[in-house]
Specification:
two-stranded antiparallel ribbon, two-stranded parallel ribbon, 8% strand, disordered C terminus, mainly alpha, Heat Shock Protein 90
Length: 198
Amino acid sequence: MARRTAEQNQVESCRSTDAFNGVVLASGAVCSYLLARRTLRPVEEAMEAQSRFSSDAAHELRTPLTIMQSEIEVGLRDKKATKQSHNELLASSLDEVQRMRTLTDRLLLLANNHDMTLLPTNLENAAIEAVNHAIPFGSGKKIRIENSVGTLQVIGNADSLIDVLVILLDNAVKYSPAKSTITLSASAKGQTRRDANN
């Protein structure tokens, strides 16, 4: 009987040890899972940011390509085109290529986490340039683009402001009915002053 009790104690001891080992193993697995998930969170966020950046870059580059394509198609269809009109078309295409190069350089700056220079910028001039870039978008749908932006000074990057306005106008053309008018306008609400010492 004493021997049987010793065997029972040994079996119970083994069961207790197995149960303890099982709890430790399960706890370790849960902790490992939670730590791995926590460790991978920055990787997931970086991958999402990279995906957003790629999508934004594709959209930014598509706009100048659309302008070039529209202008070239119109130029090729024009049976009465003169040498001067072809030269204007080539000059406009060259402007868009230069714009794409600038845009690519800025995208690379953003990808490398460099800051853009923010300076006092005339919003009216940015709007005029954006409207000039966007006019070919509306030509196929006979959409008129008007600029009602007055003289406003903002702190920003002029090239980036132009790009944003061109993207807004591009989207407006896409989602507007044919033969409509798109008006670009801006107004100042309140006055903000930024001190160089702040």
